[in-house]
Structures are given as structure tokens and as C-alpha cells.
Amino acid sequence: MPFESEIIPLQAVNDAVTKAHGIRLFVLRTDLNHPDFSGNKLFKLKYNLLEAQKLGKKTLLTFGGAFSNHIAASAAAGKKYGFKTIGIIRGEEYPELNPTLQFAKRCRMRLHYVSRSLYRNKTELYEYVEQQFSAENYYLIPEGGSNEFGVTGCKEITEHINMDFDYVCTPCGTGATMAGIVMSLKQNQNAVGFQILKAKGYIQKEVSQWINKFGESSAADLDDSEMFSPAGNWNINENYHFGGYAKVNKELAVFIKQFELENNIPLDFIYTGKMMFGIYDLIGKGFFKKGRTIIAIHTGGLQGNSGFSFRSLIHE
Ligand SMILES: *Cc1c(COP(=O)(O)O)cnc(C)c1O
């Protein structure tokens, strides 16, 4: 099965800002994992696919918006590892498929559209899906792959950082990736999550809940107490969401372009661009002390960039 012994590049960033502040910055390029399904979604899918396989399921059913990185990753992973896939897509069907959904379709994902109001109510949505697709004997993966198996997979992200570091930074949508990272920290390592939704305290709460859940359920077989991070070595920064999910202004767009030109690392507008903007702003403000090593997780999402111009032109 998937994902073993992948080498994920750790790319050094040496530019005027990092030099001026004496910061060592590296980007863990999980976006380069695989040409079709990359980034944190791969880590979140790993144990879900293994579980589906264990249960003898032939079909994966999952959920997402029309531009969802998770939909794209699930479609590709299903194709590669021999699962049929069903994507429950939020919102109405447009006559012209956007690039994300075109890709999903090429991977033979069956797309099924539901109204935004039904999508919002998860109990109703799951009941509806069960009625529609019970004959498929599917394995259900929640939106974003953010269940316990998803968090477990994200604990493996830091295993790919083969150097000492002081801070690891990641963008946060549901907080599952951050929770996995936090639970994998060793002493003297810190994590900073960048919340990309405008919802005060949301990720802080989600991550805390995941940590509690894992702490309770796996305490018995825990032999490495270092695995569970001491309180106080992680925090969520809510200052760089730019007004909310998928909201972008000129300053952010200019930063993303400039960063790519200078460092040859493309960023997406929804997640990694906001994180990196935040990291640079915090470096400028002296949040990270001189001589510290920061690892920024490039969680992927680049497939969404082609859809981004599409979205602004057609849908909104
Ligand atoms: C889904 C996604 C995230 C958010 O991950 P969560 O585990 O939901 O917090 C971050 N970056 C990218 C590129 C994503 O696609």
C-alpha cells in the first residue's frame, strides 16, 4: 500500500528578509509528493485508505466544495489504489466543470451535487447519502479527510523533517493537520498554526479536542511520553486570514508572486500563501528570535490555483 519511504524535499529559503533577521527558514515541500495527489491531503488519506482496505470496501465516498483539494486528492488516490470514488459536491452543478472537478472526473470520480443547506447539516447530509448510496457499501471519509485516521496520518509529517528545528508552521482549515503535527512534537519544538477561516477560537478548540481525544484513547499503549507535547508549545495565529476563507487582497497576491519569483516556491491563495505571508510578517516583527530554525509545511493546494481565476471570473 501507499506512501512508504517517500522523500519529501526540504528547501532552504535564503532571501533578504530571512538574512536580515538571522532566521533559518526551510519549506517542507509536501506539495511535491506526487504529481496528482500531494500535500497534507495525502497524509490524511493514508490511514483512511488502509482502513477501507481492511474493511474490504471497494468505494470511497467523500465530500467537498467544488474547488476542494481533498476532492482532487481523493479522486486521484482512489484511481491509483483501486477504489471507486464518489464525490458529494457542495452547491449547484455548473454546465462547465471547473479544473478541480474536471480532474476528479478524469480520475473517474462520480460527482453528486447537493444544496448548500443540506451540505451544512452533517446529520441530514449523512442520512441522505446513506439513502442514495447504501447499495455501494462505501467507506465514508469526512470533508477534508479530517477524522481520526486523518490526524494519525498527519502525525507522520514531521518525520520528514530530518534536521533540528525550533518552529514548525502550518496553515489550518479544520485543524486536523495541526493536531497531528502538535502531537508529534518533541521537547523544545513549537508549532504555529495559521487559521485561514475567520472564526475566532475555532482552530484552537478543534486542536485541543483532537489532542484530548488521542490522549484518552491511546494513553494505555503510550510508551513514549515525549510524543505528547507539553502544553504551551503550540499556538494558533488568527491575524492572517485576510477576511476569511478564499478571501484575497492585492497585498497577498503581490506577496505570493514575489515569494515565488525570489524563492522558486509556488504558493496557493487559500492556505500556504496566507501562512507564508504570516511567517514573513512575524519575522519582521521579531516574533521568531535570531538564529531560530523554522520549518514551514507546504501543504499543497496548488491544484486550486487554476480554479482560482476561474472562480473569480465565473462564480462570484
Ligand atoms: C486542506 C488543506 C489545509 C488544511 O488542513 P486541515 O487539516 O483541514 O487544517 C491546509 N493546506 C492545504 C493546501 C489544504 O489543502
Walk me through the structure:
Helices cover 41% and strands 17% of the residues. The chain is an alpha/beta fold. It has 2 domains: 10-35 and 148-310, 3-Layer(aba) Sandwich (Rossmann fold); 40-145, Rossmann fold (3-Layer(aba) Sandwich), CATH 3.40.50. Helix 8 (176-183) links the parallel strand 7 and strand 8. It is globular.
What are the SSEs and their pairings?
Elements (H helix, E strand, L loop, with lengths): L9 E4 L2 H6 L2 E6 L10 H15 L4 E6 L4 H13 L2 E7 L8 H8 L3 E5 L1 H5 L1 H12 L4 E4 L6 H7 L12 E6 L3 H8 L6 E6 L6 H16 L16 E4 L12 H14 L8 H13 L8 E6 L4 H13 L1
Parallel strand pairs: 2-10, 3-4, 3-6, 4-5, 7-8, 7-10, 8-9
Antiparallel strand pairs: 1-2
Helix pairs in contact: 2-3, 2-7, 3-4, 7-8, 8-9, 10-11
Pyridoxal-5'-phosphate (PLP) binds next to helix 2, helix 3, strand 7 and helix 8.
Major sheet attributes: 6 strands, mixed
Structural class: alpha/beta
Helix content: 40-55%
Within the largest sheet, what's the order of strands?
1-2-10-7-8-9
Radius of gyration computed on alpha carbons: 19 Å
Would you count the extended β strands for me?
A: 10
Q: How much is the average pLDDT? A: 91
End-to-end separation: 41 Å
CATH architecture of the largest domain: 3-Layer(aba) Sandwich
CATH topology of the largest domain: Rossmann fold
Unique bound compounds:
pyridoxal-5'-phosphate
Number of helices: 12
Strand content is 15-25%
What kind of oligomer do you see? single chain
